[in-house]
Amino acid sequence: MPAPTSAPRTLYDKVFDDHVVYSGEGDTLLYIDRHLVHEVTSPQAFEGLRNAGRKVRRPDCTLVTVDHNIPTVSRKNFKSVSTFIGETDSRAQVVALEDNVKEFGLTYFGMDDKRQGIVHIIGPEQGFTLPGTTVCCGDSHTSTHGAFGALAFGIGTSEVEHILATQTLPQAKSKNMRINVEGKLPEGVGSKDVVLHIIGVIGTAGGTGCVIEFAGSTIRELSMEARMSICNMSIEGGARAGMIAPDEITFEYLKGRPLSPREGEEWDSAVAYWKTLKTDPGAKYDIEVEIKAEDIIPTLTWGTSPQDVVPINGVVPNPADFPESKRGNVIRSLEYMGLTAGTPMEKIKIDKAFFGSCTNGRIEDMRSAARVIIASEKNGGPSKVAEGVYAMIVPGSGLVKQQAEAEGLDVIFKKAGFDWREAGCSMCLGMNPDQLKPGERCASTSNRNFEGRQGAGGRTHLMSPAMVAAAALTGYFTDIRKIMGTRGNEDGGLKITSYFDYLTPVEVPAVPEAPTEETPEGKTPVKATAAASAGLPKFNVLRGIAAPMWEANIDTDKIIPKQFLKTLLRTGLGSALFWPIRYDVKTGEELPDFVLNKEPWKHSSILVCTGANFGCGSSREHAPWALNDFGIRCILAPSFGDIFKTNCFKNGMLPLELPQADLDALYEDASAGLELAIDLENQVVVRPNGKDPIPFTVDAFRRHCLINGLDDIGLTLEHRENIEQFEEKRTSVWPWLDGVGYAKKGQKVVAVPLKKNVKKTDW
Ligand SMILES: CC(C)[C@H](C(=O)O)[C@@H](O)C(=O)O
Ligand code: SF4
């Protein structure tokens, strides 16, 4: 492939350039090689296809599984989803997925398939994720796959529909950011500490608008599992994607995977191409960050944002030590977390420990937890989960579980009193019954510590698998170095060759079942009106009451929490908008002081937020759907989460970035209950009482689409010929991408149950 330019290019530039189908007015159309689909963000997309009479363009490049809603109790008695999943809305969402994969002929790893698991664990595990590919999924942690040198990013449901129909996506080019981590990691420090430390340094908006390349000697030394944990949390740093240049460690990981290129000529030409996927000397980055590995010590979070990090030997921070603009957020976080400034982190007691998630649900994470248990016992520390603590281990996939059991890890866990569960997202976000109760504190290997993330009123602290294991054993946050001696980074001096060496035949005590009753999330009834999108309304001049908000980093979990993601509709979510801050978590009653519960803001059609990074976090399009359903069609803020911003445009809504001073002025108008008018045609915000209007600019193509209510899929299909030409080129240049592992292009594919000793092409 000739490069479109001879200037030195970054890894991101190269992968982007290799996928351009069409470049014209507005965004570039990118070909998407790999599409992963799960039950939460797809029902409305399939419904859209059905309504438009469209097919899935590339079933051979689409892989579907269930992960968010499913219970993680034993599947010994599993017969069907309809009889196994107790909670009605979760069941409906999984049943809808099963119907959709049948109707559209897609490969599906269901609950009776060992290969089922969290979407970001199974992609790499199968060799579906490959270097140099573009990978998308209706899920923000798609960034995980960037560990392979893929350009992988999360999308909303409208974009899921777009890819299903066209196998392409309109994309603007992001900025290039490099985070260089150099040196040897100190003892006890692993990849999770590295990424938490990085987010602490750059902040949750540090990577907004960027694709981050993680580079440097520290990153090059890491295993694929560790690299995945780092790229996974790029989204917590606000980035569109994270990438790591593929190398021998990558190739070794991929060799022999079911969907990797076949050994021989195909493998050799794939590796030859993959070796070109590194940044050219002299390529320019828009932002560069240097991190010294030696500065990192075992890290955990204290607050309700992933950037709220503290070293394990530190103390709960004091709001007075933060700049005034941040103090309000810190005070609110400490109150929510039930923490007092100055308390040493090691003096904080936990109620629950959660292992799993797409960040740390892989085999290496399981081994790391087992090593801590063994080392603790050997070094005279506790050998059992602390009294009063419930600790659960949820493997990221059925294959991770199988591997862990083959290594004897499950017995080590059970013997120590951990609950060994089935694969799924589980308590990472608690769409299933695995949840925290209000006030419970959890040491968690997951990636988000937002308010209510693991259960309404629950308190989440993020940390490495080793640190979670240590906390489960001692009952307090614990410096892993104290348990592992000075060799925490390796295996605590144990020289483990087989975990079976540590298995003495013992009676495995029964673990108390995880609470299955629903936590009192006081689900507000949502009104269901229509199913799929009915085309975009036009946006010309929007006049109305504006609601003032001041908080920074309002994440999409706060805009619409997990219990409302089980809908099969795009509408009816307005009554649940801002649920965690609009209603009392215990009673479900409206909080009278919340702005949208008061007159005149109950009738707002505009939101003015003076805090930055509005809509960060999860890719759930339910966030703009909820705002829209409430009646809000324009949000003004200093900056937005990337995926949220795109999702707004896809729904005919305007996310408008304005300078802080303008927002402060508009905040005053909004607080006075006065009307504003957003005139998109003339690009001005018209203020009340004849005050000077505030000018703004919106990308010309986006503006044109909003004003004319244009449907993106229709626009893309005008480039059908370009897509076909690209596919022909793809088949000749990168033949291994044509889904040979599943079925021939265009054929109906059926998931095949796993056979023993599964080898590649056993599909
Ligand atoms: C359900 C999905 C939209 C969401 C995401 O995008 O991240 C989920 O996986 C999460 O972690 O909050
Ligand atoms: S972050 Fe949690 S809920 Fe989201 S995909 Fe990963 S494991 Fe699932």
Automatic annotation (TrEMBL):
Pathway: Amino-acid biosynthesis; L-leucine biosynthesis; L-leucine from 3-methyl-2-oxobutanoate: step 2/4. Residues 13-475 form the Aconitase/3-isopropylmalate dehydratase large subunit alpha/beta/alpha domain. Its EC number is 4.2.1.33. Keywords: 4Fe-4S, Amino-acid biosynthesis, Branched-chain amino acid biosynthesis, Iron, Iron-sulfur, Leucine biosynthesis, Lyase, Metal-binding. Pfam families: Aconitase, Aconitase_C. It catalyses: (2R,3S)-3-isopropylmalate = (2S)-2-isopropylmalate. One of its GO terms (molecular function) is metal ion binding. Belongs to the aconitase/IPM isomerase family. This is 3-isopropylmalate dehydratase. It comes from Kwoniella newhampshirensis.
